Amino acid sequence: MSAPVTDMAAVPVDWARVRADFPLLERHVHGKPLVYFDNANTGQKPAAVIEAVDGYYRHFNANVSRAVHQLGSEATEAYEGARKRLARFLNVRADELVLCSGTTFAINLVAYSWALPRLKAGDTILVSRMEHHANIVPWQLVAARTGATIRVAEIHEDGTLDREALARAMTPDVKLLAITHVSNLLGTVNPVRELCREARRRGIVTVVDGSQAVPHRPVDLQAIGCDFYAFTGHKMCGPTGTGALWARREHLEAMPPFLGGGEMIREVSFDGTVFNDPPHRFEAGTPNIAGFVGLAAAVDYLDGIGMANIEAREADLLAYLTTALDAEPGVRILGRAPDKAAVVSFLVEGAHAHDLATLLDLEGVAVRSGQHCAHPLLQFYGVAATCRASPAFYNTHAEIDAFITALRKVRRLLG
Ligand SMILES: Cc1ncc(COP(=O)(O)O)c(C=O)c1O
User: Fold this and answer.
1) Taking the complete model, does pTM exceed 0.85, yes or no?
2) Residue 232 Cα, ligand 1 centroid: separation in angstroms?
3) Are 98 and 106 in contact (CB under 8 A)?
4) In whole angstroms, what is the distance from residue 144 CA to residue 170 CA?
5) How far is the CA of 278 from the centre of ligand 1 (A)?
6) What is the DSSP letter of 95?
7) What pLDDT does 6 receive?
8) What per-residue confidence (pLDDT) applies to 66?
9) Each residue of 347-390: pLDDT tens digit?
10) What mean pLDDT is predicted for residues 4-32?
């Protein structure tokens, strides 16, 4: 396991050493060195995370919050320690973080426990055009059951939010604004702090989808000032099936449980059940203990590099990749927001996205193709599918060069 590279933004990071922390990046696929550019989909894991998960199963595997024996206390301490570690990373209180399987669960928790009991016919849920389906479909389910309606905040052609249209859309019937921090298809970084301030002034509760933000830039939830913030662990070097919902304590205290079972109760009898306090009230059943042990290690790892360093490194990779793709004739990039994360969705004249991605894979390059769980956004651009290259801090300029060489070869093959 490597020691943290640096914890000071001023000290240069040895990126080659960082890359060497990721065993999977040594792989070859189809006989070619792997170029992994599908980080917006899921991130790779450093050895420190893999070893933390392994260490849990080897040395203190036990269930949490139930057993009084030594292993049980060690497992509980590690699980609750992960909650505290995440809270410190995001500058919030640990008892405001509900640990769960990821963003999808977190947003559904808000939908079922906060929105469903409160919204009614005549209320409006405002969502942006650039949301992932995880921040659309739960609201459609709520709307169908409550009679509330969904309103869409539109975007400009460059992939930025239409702020004026959004302000106009915040009418008194709007009870909730669901907005992504960073778009998974366009890379657009939304000014969530300002948007949440605007919404709060009008009494609108805010749900921010932080899936594509937390892994790539410093995030201070107190500074953002939202009501709910959801994120997922597997995109931030952590294990799959981990993530959290942060919520203001007053919301958590007022919310009924979403799922019932063990761990989320204080007392059960057939005359009635007393629920546990938040956040445990929302964590029914045995959690992904190993996953959260790994996620705590992931946060240590990211903090060791420094999120400001990661942000700067990825901005450099984005600029290099964008310049390289812009130099290719017939390539169109969707999303040109001035504040943009390292996510590049592109179209190639005369080639279908799936064909491109399939042939790129044969050259060792992993990019995602399709609709990226954002059908309404592709409908806005009038395209059926895109390819998406999303480098992370452990990728290199040389890999971008290899990707461009592979793209040229693939285009020749496609005629
Ligand atoms: C912006 C955004 N929201 C939500 C999700 C869903 O995350 P998960 O599948 O981890 O719940 C993703 C994952 O691709 C995403 O990019």
Assistant:
1) yes
2) 7
3) yes
4) 21
5) 24
6) G
7) 41
8) 76
9) 999 999 999 999 999 999 999 999 999 999 999 999 999 999 99
10) 84
10 Å CB burial of residue 348 (0-12, 13-18, 19+) is buried
**DSSP, residue by residue, 121-147:** TT-EEEEETT--GGGTHHHHHHHHHH-
Q: Which of 100, 196, 226, 373 is catalytic?
A: 373
Residue 313: name the closest of 228, 400, 384 by CA: 400
Beta-carbon contacts of 358 under 8 Å, excluding residues fewer than 6 positions away, are 369
Establish whether 373 is a catalytic residue: yes
Distance 231 CA to ligand 1 centre (A): 8
128 lines ligand 1 (CB under 6 A): no
Atom nearest to 240 CA in ligand 1: 10
Beta carbons within 8 Å of 277's beta carbon, 6+ residues apart: 95, 253, 266
Please report, to the nearest 10 degrees, the dihedral formed by the alpha carbons of residues 317, 323, 327, 330 taken in order.
Answer: 80
One DSSP character per residue, 336-380 reads --SSB-S-EEEEETTB-HHHHHHHHHHTTEE-EEE-TT-HHHHHH
Amino acid at residue number 5? V
- Which whole number is the average pLDDT over 298-312? 98
